[in-house]
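QA checklist item 7 of 12: single-chain prediction sanity check.
[x] sequence parsed
[x] length recorded as 111
[x] structure emitted
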Amino acid sequence: MYLESRKNNWFNSIIVEHIKRQSFYLVAKQAIERETRSSKVFVKETVKDQLTERETEVLYYMAAGMTNKEIGKKLHISASTVKTHTINLYGKLEVSSRIQAVTKAKALRLI
């Protein structure tokens, strides 16, 4: 950057310092955004890799608002087995409720 004016030299130095600070903040913000995006992708891939096919199916039907009994009928398994898959999902997604599981799965684009 080049500023031309000998009369307002103090003003130019203030502008230069302001631009330097803003540039630093912009670079830092971009680095944080890049890191956040890559860590979200990493979390998504890690969780996705941990889920079994059956757990993914159960999660999909949970998101559709189905009960354990309804999911069990749909998948030809018992409601108790659905509950086991649900508990496993909670652990893998690090949540403690169906709503949290579905919300997090949607945020991670698992469903």
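[x] summary fact logged: The mean pLDDT is 80.
[ ] second reviewer sign-off
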